[in-house]
Amino acid sequence: MKAAAAGGTAQYDLRYVLTISAVAALGGLLFGYDWVVIGGAKPFFEKYFQLTSEAQVGWANSCALLGCLVGALASGGFSDRFGRKTGLILAALLFAVSSVLTGWAPGFGWFVAWRIAGGVAIGMASGISPMYIAEVSPAPWRGRLVAMNQLAIVVGVLGAQIANWAIAESVPEGATAEMIRLSWNGQYGWRWMFTAVAAPAVVFLFSALLVPESPRWQAMKGREKAALRTLVRIGGEAYGDEALREIRATAPGARPRVRWGELAAPPLRRVLVVGVALAVLQQWSGINVIFNYAEEIYRGAGYGVNQVLVNIVITGTINLAFTLVAMGTVDRFGRRALLLVGLAGIALSHLVLGLAYWMEWRGLAVLLLTLSAIACYAMSLAPVTWVLIAEIFPNRIRGMAISIAVSALWIACFALTFTFPVLNAALGAAGTFWLYGVICLAGFVFVLRAVPETKNKTLEELEREFGAEGARRRQCV
Questions:
Q1: CA–CA separation, 121 vs 410, rounded Å?
Q2: The pTM is what?
Q3: 3-state class of 395 per DSSP?
Q4: Which of 425, 274, 428, 447 is nearest to 347 (CA)?
Q5: DSSP letter at 139?
Q6: I need a surface site. Which of 172, 220, 254, 298 has the fewest CB within 10 A?
Q7: pLDDT in 10s for each residue of the chain, 477 residues
Q8: What does DSSP assign to residue 52?
Q9: How does 84-109 read in b/e, with b if 16+ C-beta sit within 10 Å?
Q10: What whole-number distance in Å separates Cα of residue 78 and Cα of residue 352?
Q11: What gap in Å lies between CA 249 and CA 299, rounded to an integer?
Q12: What is each CA distance from 406 to 147, 209, 254, 272, 384, in whole angstroms?
C-alpha cells in the first residue's frame, strides 16, 4: 500500500511502516500488561505469601519500579551503543522470562527478584519502543505512529484487567484472608495472571528479530548504505536520499559516544527540561493513582469487591476509546492543542471529584468523574508525552536524552504512588484530588509557554529549529 506525501514526491509504503511500528509497539503492549496485572493479582499473592506488614505489601507492589528505573537508565546507553532493534529484542526476552518465573515463584524473595527483572523490561521498552517508531516514521505520520505505542500500552492495560477479571473466580463477600489463600485464586489464579503475558512476549521476540534497525541509528554509526536501504523502503529513492542528507547535516563529525555534560549545555538543556517536565507532569497529573489505587478508590465510593473489578475494566475501556481519539487527532490538531485541552479537562475533573468526596457523594458520581479524568488523560498527556519525548531530541543524543526523560517519569511515578496514601491520610481524598487539579493547571501554563508545536516537521527540522532558538537566546543574554 503506497501513500503520497502531502506536498512532496515521496511515495510512502504505509503497510511497511505500519508493520515495523506495530512490532515496536508490542513493547508498549507488554509494558501496559505487566504494569497493571499486579493490581488484580494483589489480593491473592499477598495472602499466598502471607504478607502482613505494610512494608512487605508496599515492597511487593512497588519493587518493579526499581527495575523500571534501572531499565530506563540503561536503555539510553545500550540502544546508542548496540542499536534500537537489539534493545527491543532484549526487552522482549526479559518480558518472556520474567513473566513465567514471577508467576511460578516458589517464595516471596524470588517473586520480588523476577518482578524487578520485569520492571527492567518495562523501563527499556518505555524508552526504546517510541524512539524506534519516531526514527522510522515519516513526518506527516509520526504523531499517530508514535501514539500507536500508547495505544498498545492501553490495550495491554485493558488486557491485564480483562485477564484478571476472567481468571479470578468470584470472591464471596466477607471471605477471610485464610479462605482467599486456600482458594484456587490464592493458590493458582494469580500465577496465571502473571504467566499470561509470556505468549505475546514470545511473539514480540521473534517479530523484533525481523524488523530493520533504525535508519537514523545506522546513519549515526556510519552505516549509511544500510540506512539508505531502509529509508528507500519507507518512502522511495527521493525520500531516502533527502532523509539521509538531512541526517548528515544535523550530525557533522558526530562522536560515537555522548558525554553527559553535553546534555546540560544550551540549547540541549532547554529541550531536556521540556522533555523531563512533560514526563513528570504525565505522572503528577494524578491519573495513575486512579489506576494503581482503583480498589481503594471505588471501595471508598461504596462498591463491593466484584463490582470494583467490573469498574476497573470500564476504566480500561474508556482509556482505550479515547486513546483512539488521540491517534486520530494528534497529527491533525497538533501536540500543543491536545495537551492544553486535556490538561484543562483533567484539572476540572479532579477539582469536581474532590468536591464529590468533600460532599460525601458515593457510587456513580465518583465513577463518572474518574472516567472523565481518564478520558481527558487518554486523549492528551498519555500519548502526546511519548510523542514529544520521542521527537524533540537531536539524533545524536536521542537515546541518552530519552533515557533521562523516561527515568524522570519512573521516579515521578514512584513519588506519586508512594505519596498518595500519605496525602490521602493528611488531606483526605478531597484535598488530594484538589492538589492534583492544581498541578494540572500549572502544567497547562507550562505547556502554553514552553512546549513547541512539532507536527509535520522532520526530526532534523526540529533539531535545527531548537538549535537556532538556542542561539538566539544566547545572543539576547
A1: 13
A2: 0.80
A3: helix
A4: 447
A5: G
A6: 172
A7: 555 554 455 578 889 999 999 999 999 999 888 877 887 787 788 888 888 877 787 788 778 888 999 999 898 889 988 999 999 999 999 999 999 999 999 999 999 999 999 999 999 998 899 999 999 998 888 888 888 888 898 888 888 878 877 777 666 666 666 776 777 776 888 889 899 889 999 999 999 999 999 999 999 888 999 999 999 999 999 989 998 988 887 765 445 555 666 666 666 778 888 999 999 999 999 888 777 666 667 766 666 656 776 777 788 788 889 998 988 888 888 889 999 999 999 999 999 999 988 988 877 788 888 889 999 999 999 889 988 988 888 877 788 888 899 999 989 988 887 788 788 888 988 999 999 999 999 999 999 998 888 887 777 777 777 664 544 444 443
A8: -
A9: bbbbbbbbbbbbbbbbbbbbebeebe
A10: 44
A11: 57
A12: 16, 25, 24, 11, 14
How crowded is the C-beta side of 9, counted as CA atoms within 13 Å? 9
At a CB cut-off of 8 Å and minimum separation 6, what does 462 contact? 391, 392, 454
Supply the DSSP symbol for 303.
Answer: -
Distance CA 218, CA 228 (A): 9
Check if the beta carbon of residue 245 is closer than 8 Å to that of residue 224: no
Spatial separation of the C-alpha atoms in residues 178 and 183, rounded to whole Å: 9
| Residue whose C-alpha cell reads 474508556 in the numeric block | 318
Q: Work out the end-to-end distance of the chain between its first and last CA atoms, rounded to an integer number of angstroms.
A: 51
Cell numbers given for 444: 497547562
Q: Which helix (H) or strand (E) holds 13?
A: strand 11-13
What are the φ/ψ torsions at residue 11 (nearest 5 degrees)?
A: -115, 95
Enter the C-alpha cell of residue 387: 510523542
Helix (H) or strand (E) holding 345: helix 335-358
- Report yes or no: 430 and 357 within 8 Å, Cβ to Cβ: yes
Alpha-carbon gap, residue 436 to 351, rounded angstroms: 8
